[in-house]
Amino acid sequence: MRARFCIFLAVAIVVILAVAIPVIIIERAKTDRNTDVQGRPGTAASAEDQSRADWGNSFDISTDWEVNWPDTGVTRTYSFDIAEVDQFVGGDGVVKNKAMLINANFVIGPVIRANWGDRINVTVSNHLQSSGTSIHWHGFRQLNNNINDGTGGVTECPIPPGSSKTYTFQATQYGTSWYHSHISSQSASGLQGAIQIEGPASYAYDIDLGVFPISDWYYNATDQILNRVFSAANPFVPGQPGTPPPSDNVLFNGTNINPLGTGGNYAKIMFTPGKRHRLRLINAGVENTFTISIVGHSMTVIATDFVPVNPYPVDSVYLSVGQRLDVVIDANQPVGTYWLNATFSAARVCGSSNNAHPAAIVQYDGAPWWIPTDPGTAPKDTYCADDIAATPVVPRVAPIGLFVPDTSNTLNVSLNVDSSVSKVYWEVNSSAIDVTWDKPTLQDVLDGEGTFQTAQNIVEMPGQTQWTFWLIQNLSPVPHPMHLHGHDFIVIARSAALTNPLDPSNQPVTFNPAADAALLSQTSIPIRRDTSVLPAYGWMLVAFQTSNPGVWVFHCHIAWHVSQGLSVQFLERAAEIVHLMDVSGALGETCPAWKAWEGGGGVQKGDSGL
């Protein structure tokens, strides 16, 4: 029986009394919400009201938002003040050595809310003592707006201490996402928050419970953890350089109990009996991945990342770092309390925690408050593989006959221990990315550079609106959630997940055009999203169109891994970039101040910069 039930078992006789277990309540997305962000125009929908698919003004769930989207003329304005907090008491009541917070929020930043077609302006002011920063708007396409992608060393110079930058972009997509710093794993220190864009839905529901980020949490300072992850001489697991530490806890919407002592709060989600509830799940983590399930309840998946899908029922969902899943849950069980469980894989390569059984609590309206007694059954172990069976409402099929595997479209991922400097790197095609903060890649584009440094990991794609195919080959026993900026991608096929990736007899499974031809046959509409998992010792084939000029990174979303170099930069239609956006003006907003601060003795980067 799990540790979190011990309190209940010890006091089972008196559980009907007022048990004083602290909770953080999530209900109906009624709080911390802009009152003029109303969601679907019109009256509230019932479970039988299928009009959630309709958004009005000829926009609906079948609208292809890569081609057409509303323009509301509304601007949502936010201000972020970023500062460090030493000896920060986190959401589980335990002190973290050093945190970085937005608007002094509790672990996670404020929720950005808008309607589909709104413009979003966010002014970010850096009050950190000795670090630059940036904010990336995860999953947003940023069509012809690469200058607002928020990737330090790629699309901008970092915002130096004492300076600010205003990001502006339109919500041409809708659904669930998040934002985070894209500088040296700062998101692990707390620089992150959720985004909720109201739009149509492929399935009816009554109550939108809002965003529900789940993330691993570490008590040590992020730079201290990175030093050991990089170290070949002092890894977290002796004899295994590059291994990450277990997280100290897993937080649900920024909170949880302390698994090793007193303090903290369970996150609690409120269900209304007989109603359908939309829950927007986000893995806003650093390294941990989970299978999410609710005891006694099934779920209906309606969106993968920003892509609406045809609804399908599941008992549990796997969520890797950076991924989002919108699910609808029927509150059709007896009134009571139920565990929402985040279960780790037995594969041992996609996360572990000192909180071995992290959970939140679902409570029905009208139920007495008590700790749930039924732990539920363990969900199916996907062995770190995300579900690729979902079919998008708006289909897109790549012309697979154009794919011919060769070295020009193959990205080999490998771990390298550099004995000359006693450091551990994750490399793509034998190169760990290393961006230059004071001369971001967009500066190279502005200057007309035709030759790039090897460590920039530039992949040039000059062709207009052409299908491009990428075979990612994993030469390591660790799966990687691969995230692409500026695009969704189609997952055409991938190799099977290994049940025991750390078995020393394993060897990389390489793509074989003849043997794997059947896997490439697109008999159904393939899944499309912006983050998907590259299997351990396996391969994944993805495709997207070159429809968005800019410099877009394609990287592992495990924070430690991208810090260690696991990324490339897709330089897409470079000749058009400076004609579509004000690159010079955007770089001028932060680069002069950054160079002055850096030249005055500012902290130098010790990782890839991403």
UniProtKB/TrEMBL annotation:
Its EC number is 1.10.3.2. CDD domains: CuRO_1_MaLCC_like, CuRO_2_MaLCC_like, CuRO_3_MaLCC_like. It is an enzyme of class 1 (oxidoreductase). Residues 1-20 form the signal peptide. Pfam families: Cu-oxidase, Cu-oxidase_2, Cu-oxidase_3. Its cofactor is Cu cation. This is laccase.
